[in-house]
TrEMBL record:
Amino acid composition bias (Low complexity), ranges on this chain: 139-158
Name of the protein described by the UniProt record: Small ribosomal subunit protein bS16
Organism lineage string: Bacteria, Bacillati, Actinomycetota, Actinomycetes, Propionibacteriales
Superkingdom in the source lineage: Bacteria
Spans through the membrane: none
Originating organism: Actinopolymorpha singaporensis
GO biological process: translation
GO annotation, cellular component aspect: cytoplasm; small ribosomal subunit
Signal peptide start-end: none
Alphabetized UniProt keyword annotations: Ribonucleoprotein, Ribosomal protein
Chain spans, region Disordered: 82-158
Length: 158
């Protein structure tokens, strides 16, 4: 019986993740397996790779053949070099630790209670031409707007 170490696909259509499994070479890709020896999540940044090194060494020593993708993963983790007696590769990249949700909430709350830094004017309203009320008094008199508005106010008030 030929034994292979290969990937078993799981997850959703565009969000796959894989289990590194030991299976009979005649079984389906996602069929019955002998043992699960690791996980691989290619969509996360950097890719999440977890391999049980002891079990991988065992299966390689008894003759299990890794598939091409699994061979690449074993080379990244250093298990293949350990099996072949070669020097180990560079360590894997690890994701940056996530920020504490409580600290993020406290920072957002502190920012919300502080005074605003700038004026509350949108870009659209700042780009508009100034209105008649915003014009200086001498410029409004030169155009005759103030006299007309005073007369209109006098008529409506009387």
């Amino acid at each position: 019986m030929a034994v292979k170490i290969r990937l078993k696909r799981m997850g959703k259509i565009r969000a796959p993740y894989y289990r590194i499994v030991v299976a009979d070479s005649r079984t389906k890709r996602d069929g019955k397996t002998i043992e699960q020896i690791g996980k691989y999540h290619p969509k996360s940044d950097p890719s999440f790779i977890e391999v049980d090194s002891e079990r991988a060494q065992h299966w390689l020593s008894v003759g299990a053949q890794p598939s091409e993708p699994v061979l690449a993963i074993l080379k990244r983790t250093g298990d293949w070099q350990k099996f072949k007696g070669e020097p180990a590769p560079e360590p894997l990249k690890t994701p940056a630790p996530k920020a504490d949700k409580r600290a993020l909430f406290d920072d957002a709350l502190r920012d919300a209670h502080s005074e605003p830094q700038g004026e509350a004017v949108s870009k659209k309203s700042a780009a508009r031409k100034p209105k008649a009320e915003d014009k200086p008094a001498d410029q409004a008199e030169a155009t005759g707007e103030s006299a007309g508005t005073e007369a209109a106010q006098g008529e409506s008030g009387a």
